[in-house]
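User: I'm writing a tutorial on reading structure tokens. Could you give me a worked example: one chain, its sequence, then its tokens, then a sentence or two explaining what the tokens reveal?
Assistant: Sure. Here is the example chain.
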Amino acid sequence: MQLDALNEFAFEESDQQPRVYGHNGAVVIELHGEIDLLAYQRMAPLLDPITGGTATTVVIDLTRTTFFDCSGVALLVRAHRRTAERGAHLFVVCTHRLTLRILRLTGLTPMLAPVPSLERALEKALEDK
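And here are its predicted structure tokens:
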């Protein structure tokens, strides 16, 4: 099979970098597009300084993602581990039913506790303090 023929089955590469900003005392990381192996390789080095930094609350917002596979799960687990190691809190915003299903099937829903909005993540952050 020709490489061009395989491209028909490939997902489009998203060149959009995560948007990172401060909001009500939290660092918010908005992920966009497809979260697959390629995205993991590009994003892990970008997220590591944030998840290993000084922020006591980190929110990963998945509402603008269009595809999420096991590499995305690994990215979230990595972020959770790095924040937990230093006593910080990680919150995941997700409403996409297939992504939520992946988290449930992997048994990570209790650990990552996805919430439906940034506002709810910030409320939970205040409750945890």
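What the tokens reveal: Confidence is low (pLDDT under 50) at residues 1-14. The CA atoms of residues 9 and 21 lie 34 Å apart.
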